């Protein structure tokens, strides 16, 4: 795997684990999940990231490279992975954006 994806692995919190039961997967989606899905719809609509291709990548990468990530987080990680592959964003830009978001949450 390319060094360009290292930033994605840095998002996996120590002690995080993949869900192991249906009960762990059950529940209402977090607000960020709905926002992320809407963002993906917009990216697809504008031709930047096809929804079908993203879902196929989510299935493939979610069961291989990102297997240790919680299921609900995989969607975001695979989307970022795809955007890096497409050259829409690079690791430096993604790292800077993630830092800015974390700082904003720490202020609130």
From TrEMBL:
InterPro entries: CN_hydtase_beta_C, Elect_transpt_acc-like_dom_sf. SUPFAM superfamilies: Electron transport accessory proteins (SSF50090). This is Nitrile hydratase beta subunit. It comes from Rhodococcus maanshanensis.
